[in-house]
């Protein structure tokens, strides 16, 4: 892995469409190459070797059909956004997000300086939106460029469009920061949106220094977002429920097989098992 540039493990990230906020599978990680800078700097910017911080994010669009009375050029209202996978505030990691819209929009380069990182527009056409994430200075000096296709029309176009049920398209990814600075780790050590490793006993981090443009009064979480009911669920709790359900199915299948075997116990047994079979 090169030490001088950003490396991304998956060039095209998976996208998932949902009409009801259903859960979706997860995708490969976006991992930065290790910093070429001196890792033995003194102070809070000193980097911790062999440590990784993971930030799960979701980016996507939600589009509402405005109905027959809307003009042809303003048929849909849509929102593009970057949110925490568990709807927590990403402001401790992300400094600003730049959305690059289609050139037909006024001021197509939109800069959002504080969370929640989103913007809303009206239009009629689908196009690709470039999303650039910029991080605080103690996090990373590189940016992450994502690409998302704005979807306005549902896959099943046999019936009339609904003004109540939006078209949701979201992608999940995990941004991984290897060898983080002590200040970054101290700030997000107990942050609900960030996955940090367990530190050795007795390891002391410095008191986190305040960062620029972090608005304490303005909460950037999206738990109470007006569209949160339509967000897809990428949470670990949801996955655990699925695993529990699958385990129950496996256990039920094992019980069924045991019953079949117990019924076969009454049948005459072969003195020697057929070749190729082993009993355990």
Helix content: 10-25%
Q: Which regions contain 5 or more consecutive residues with pLDDT less than 50?
A: 1-14, 19-23
How many H/I helices? 2
| End-to-end Cα distance | 46 Å
Largest beta-sheet details: 6 strands, mixed
Dominant shape? flat
Q: Based on DSSP secondary structure assignment, what is the total number of beta strands? A: 10
Rg, nearest Å = 25 Å
**Order of helical and strand elements:** EEEEEEEEEEHH
Which class of secondary structure composition applies to the elements? alpha+beta
The amount of beta strand, in percent, is: 25-35%
Question: How confident overall, as mean pLDDT?
Answer: 76
Region (Disordered): 1-43
Subcellular location: Nucleus
Keywords: Nucleus, Transcription, Transcription regulation
Protein name: YEATS domain-containing protein
Describe what is shown at a glance:
It comes from Quercus rubra (Northern red oak). Its main location: nucleus. The protein is an alpha+beta fold.
Which properties best describe this structure?
YEATS domain-containing protein; 26% strand; YEATS; YEAST_sf; YEATS_dom; 280 residues; transcription regulation
Strand-helix topology:
Elements: E1 16-18, E2 29-31, E3 52-65, E4 76-84, E5 94-100, E6 109-112, E7 117-123, E8 128-135, E9 143-149, E10 167-178, H1 182-188, H2 236-264
Parallel strand pairs: 2-10
Antiparallel strand pairs: 1-10, 3-4, 3-10, 4-7, 5-6, 5-8, 8-9
Keywords: Nucleus, Transcription, Transcription regulation
Organism: Quercus rubra (Northern red oak)
Biased composition (Basic and acidic residues): 34-43
């Amino acid at each position: 892995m090169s030490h001088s540039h950003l490396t991304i493990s998956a060039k095209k990230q998976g996208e998932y469409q949902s009409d009801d906020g259903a859960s979706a599978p997860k995708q490969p990680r976006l991992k930065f190459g290790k910093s070429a800078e001196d890792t033995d700097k003194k102070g809070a910017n000193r980097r911790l070797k062999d440590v990784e911080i993971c930030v799960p994010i979701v980016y996507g669009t939600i589009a509402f059909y405005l109905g027959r009375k809307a003009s042809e050029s303003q048929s849909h209202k849509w929102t593009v956004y970057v949110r925490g996978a568990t709807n927590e505030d990403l402001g401790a990691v992300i400094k600003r997000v730049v959305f690059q819209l289609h050139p037909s929009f006024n001021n197509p380069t939109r800069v959002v300086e504080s969370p929640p990182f989103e913007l809303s527009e009206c239009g009629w056409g689908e196009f690709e939106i470039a999303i650039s994430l910029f991080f605080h200075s103690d996090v990373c000096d590189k940016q992450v460029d994502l690409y998302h296709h704005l979807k306005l029309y549902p896959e099943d176009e046999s019936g009339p469009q609904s003004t109540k049920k939006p078209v949701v398209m979201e992608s999940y990814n995990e941004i991984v920061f290897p060898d983080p600075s002590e200040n970054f780790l101290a700030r997000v050590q107990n942050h609900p949106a960030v996955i940090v490793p367990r530190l050795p006993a007795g390891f002391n981090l410095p008191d986190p220094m305040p960062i620029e443009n972090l608005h304490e009064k303005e909460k950037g979480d999206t738990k109470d977002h007006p569209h949160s009911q339509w967000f897809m669920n990428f949470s670990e709790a949801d996955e655990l429920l699925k695993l529990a359900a699958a385990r129950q199915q496996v256990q039920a299948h094992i019980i069924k097989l045991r019953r079949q075997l117990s019924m076969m116990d009454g049948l005459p047994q072969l003195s020697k098992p057929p070749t190729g079979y082993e009993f355990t």
